[in-house]
Prior knowledge:
Helices cover 58% and strands 0% of the residues. By secondary structure, it is mainly alpha-helical. It has a domain at 5-137.
Amino acid sequence: MNENIGSYEEIARQMVRHENELMNHRVTWLMSFEGLLFTALGFAWDKADARPLVYVFCGIGALVPASTWWVLDGAQSALSALREWWQKHQPVPYEGPGVVGFWHDSRAVTWMLPWRVFPVLFAVAWVAVGVINFQRPAPTGVNLTTLSAQQAGATGTPSRSMAAPTNAPANPSPAPVPKDSGLPLANPQAVPTPPTEKKNP
């Protein structure tokens, strides 16, 4: 065992490094995903017809941290197992560095580590958002359908709300113009002209 202790020590360090990289990737992915969900929540919060969509955000936002916490807890258990294995099999006396640079033996301190706290905080936050969304009055903001219709009108695309009413005549006739108003007549043939007297030379 003592002959191969150097190779075992290097293998343990590589495994610890691999677990740390996986934990870093998972925490970064969780933070990016939750930031995207909270951004979408900010856009949909004051829309009158987006309350069901807020519940969808709350469900996804609470389930993803729960799943992430499970895999992060597995990585933490793997690190603990590697450290315990090294403590049992390291040579005595041993004056070299351990496979882990620093380790918290207190369980209370371990539960305050970022990869354990962040998933719990995100899950609790989304549950609170769901409760607030249930208790608040109905929003009176712009509907998502109305907003899309206004955006379509701004880009020149006709929408249903901008169409002409169905009870309006297809070709409305112009209003009659008095003869003495000085304005051109809409239909000059419809108004008879008075006869003119011929003067003899």
